[in-house]
Design a protein that fits this description.
The chain contains 6 helices and 5 strands; from the N terminus they run ααααβββααββ. By secondary structure, it is an alpha+beta fold. The chain has one domain. The chain has a 5-stranded mixed β-sheet with strand order 1-2-3-4-5, sandwiched between helices. α1 packs antiparallel against α2. The termini are far apart.
């Protein structure tokens, strides 16, 4: 059991490191595995699917001791889902995440949902407070869910 626990912790470290270093492809792969292994289909088969994923992702991100994790804060022209800022080094990657679930009435495909998530970050100027705080190296990410499937795009 402790071996399994250690392995899971190591994978979590790799997942978090891939995110803060901007390796979105690896982050998507590992985050998808975590979702498949952890979340029940019944958890995400509701109107609150986005809130479930938001809380799940926040639960993972709080392990980043060197980062400030900002959730649902008003910035620019809207309310950003998640921002990650290194607490001491403003040259480190700042990350803005917009989460979306595929809405069959608005977006027919994951590509449309990812495009809409990234467009929302731009249109709502979510980077406003991040830049004001002195961060210029900014990664903007769309994270899209459909049931237990996850896609990420920068």
């Amino acid at each position: 059991s402790w071996i399994n626990e250690s392995f899971r912790h190591d994978r979590l470290d790799v997942l978090l490191n891939s995110l803060i270093n901007g390796d979105i492809e690896l982050f998507e792969e590992l985050f998808s595995q975590f979702v498949l292994e952890t979340i029940s289909f019944y958890d995400v088969n509701t109107k609150n699917e986005e809130a479930v994923y938001h809380a799940f992702l926040l639960g993972i991100l709080v392990s980043l001791d060197d980062y400030e994790v900002i959730s649902n804060r008003e910035t620019g022209l809207g309310r950003v889902d998640i921002i990650l800022l290194h607490k001491k080094d403003k040259n480190r990657l700042a990350i803005i995440m917009e989460l979306k679930r595929i809405n069959k009435f608005r977006e027919k495909t994951k590509e449309e949902a990812l495009t809409n998530a990234l467009k929302q970050i731009e249109d709502k100027k979510y980077e406003t407070d991040v830049k004001k705080r002195g961060y210029n190296n900014i990664l903007k990410m769309g994270v899209v869910f459909d049931g237990k499937r996850v896609w990420v795009k920068e």
